[in-house]
Amino acid sequence: MNWLRRWLQRKPETLAQPTFPHLHWLLNSTWLAQAVYVAARLDIAEELRAGPKSADVLASKCGVQPDELMRVLRALAGFGIFSRDSQGRFSLTESALPLLHDNPHSIQAYSEVWGVQLYAGAGRLLEQLRTGEPGFKLQHGLPMWQHYEADAEAGALFDRFMSVTTDAHCRFIPKWFDFSKFQHVVDVGAGGGSLLSTVLHSNPKQRGTWYDRAEVLPLAQERIEKEGLGSRCELIAGDFLQSVPAGGDLYLIKHVLHDWEDSMATRIVANIAEAMSKDSKLLIIGGLLDETNNRDGLCKLRDLEQMFWTGGRVRTRSDFERLLHPAGMHITATTQTPIVDVCIIEVSK
């Protein structure tokens, strides 16, 4: 979605209608986001995989009104998502390809999560500022993780979104960090095991420990066994708020700390530090905010998203140092990857 980022960051004088204030464009982008969600929810990209189709044909397949669907797709085509020919038929464009399920950069699941679980709750932003309660809890009545335990369908959609996103990130992480010098990698909050399995495949002599909640273990176990890593990977169920397995010379924690407010994130870091030897290393993988400029807008929106989900936050380097200092750890290096919310932060005792 780099095209959208560029469009949103254009200066007012570069917009197609210079007299239309820039803030109005940003406010109207609400409709664009909802239109993307609708296209994802109706699987329009999949319907167009075989070739161009009219709105009438698409509406019949999707069970919606043809005129209304035509207008939604026409609006998306105005921003390069799909194209419309002289016969009124819609086709896939390069910008629409991430809406395909099997695209390696698919945002299909994220579009649905955003449209169903985030969009309505975003309207609670002012209420969150006044109460301090996460917008997700205000909207759904329960904290995020409890809501997903109570609503299996919502939880499954969120898990699918996380799995696709994590798989997309993890394919590239070994290109940005050299894992070969480590013997035993412990992945804390390892989820479905995508990152750990990628690292182990890249380093055939390495051992790994998967560590996460018991509810996630069957998913990870299936993956580890399917990929033939069972002899090199131990799976341990537990709670990283209580303890972390010892024995690793490299500890990983990816897109976890941003889910937690500072006191809880500090506890997680302290538990990892307690498990580490004096020579062990920790990699924190996630977003890193830059406070020195007014750019980096997408990462700052990610911070608002975390605030909404759980009351967590995307942190700056100084924020991370404050988490690490009580545990006797410090940052030794950072590598910002081409993915805006994937920075590799190297930490030592």
Automatic annotation (TrEMBL):
Gene3D superfamilies: 1.10.287.1350, Vaccinia Virus protein VP39, Winged helix-like DNA-binding domain superfamily/Winged helix DNA-binding domain. Residues 26-97 form the O-methyltransferase dimerisation domain. Pfam families: Dimerisation, Methyltransf_2. Coiled coil: none annotated. It comes from the Bacteria. GO terms for molecular function: O-methyltransferase activity; protein dimerization activity. The keyword Transport does not apply. Keywords: Methyltransferase, S-adenosyl-L-methionine, Transferase. InterPro entries: COMT-like (IPR016461), COMT_C (IPR001077), COMT_dimerisation (IPR012967), SAM-dependent_MTases_sf (IPR029063), WH-like_DNA-bd_sf (IPR036388), WH_DNA-bd_sf (IPR036390). Its EC number is 2.1.1.-. This is Multifunctional cyclase-dehydratase-3-O-methyl transferase TcmN.
